[in-house]
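FW: tagging you since you asked about this chain on Friday. Here's the raw sequence from the shared folder, copied in full. Didn't touch anything.
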Amino acid sequence: MLATVLSQSPTLFIGVCVVLGLLIGSFLNVVIYRTPKMLEAEWRRQCEELAGREIAADAAKFNLVTPRSACPACNKPITALQNIPVVSWLWLRGKCAACGTRISARYPLVELLTGVAFGIVAWKFGYGWTAAAALVFTAFLIALTGIDIDTQLLPDNLTLPLLWLGLLASLFYPVWAQGAAPLEPRASIIGAVSGYLSLWSVYHVFRLITGKEGMGYGDFKLFAAFGAWFGWQMLLPIIILASAVGAIVGVVMLARQGKDRSTPIAFGPFLAVAGWLALLVGHDVSRYLGLFGPVR
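HL: got it, structure written out here
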């Protein structure tokens, strides 16, 4: 039985997860590209409804499945062979097979990132339900990171499912063999509430003092999701790491681009990186530093 083989061979399990990550990464490219466009189409549809205008019948035929992936320049559909993660991009030398338009290197990079991240998760947790939960968590973070970099949006249709998955997973807490997320239900609920209210409070205090908005509501929901998965004890280490890295990277980016401090920078990617590191080593670091006592 495959499950028995994977549980008895850590190397094979890691390899399977790497391949799975490459395939999932290809789908995440679709999620990153199409989700903002789907949201924009939905917002326009709502505006049309409020204005009392008739909505075109084919206006909604754009989602994560329809239409097939195609070259944005010539609209030539991408074949199955041309959609093999990483390999097809290298084989095509980063160009469309039909028109020769360059294909962004970000597509294979997202696939590689997902494959490597899945492999690290498999190595860290081994075969079992904890690894399965961590792989789902990782996929959500990669998609959210890509979308926030492109649009400075953290869509509710990704942040809220991640939050609910953390809360739902806590109901099956006795199943988890590892000393990692998910938590038991009480800690998960308290963590979710603490995550949302903490950034919500900082946002409103900052706005009262400066008259400016320092972050978006999507950041609150992502932080609430981290609370649901890790508990309130891990929120401070996550926000400290995300803020420190974000400040350093932000200063470097603004200096290189010649822009001032008023230029908005997406905070979601830094939160996502800090949250993923918390998944891997956060509880160990928290216990080592003696932060707030035991996580549960």
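FW: DSSP finds ten helices and no strands in the chain.
HL: agreed, and Confidence is low (pLDDT under 50) at residues 292-296.
FW: great, closing this out.
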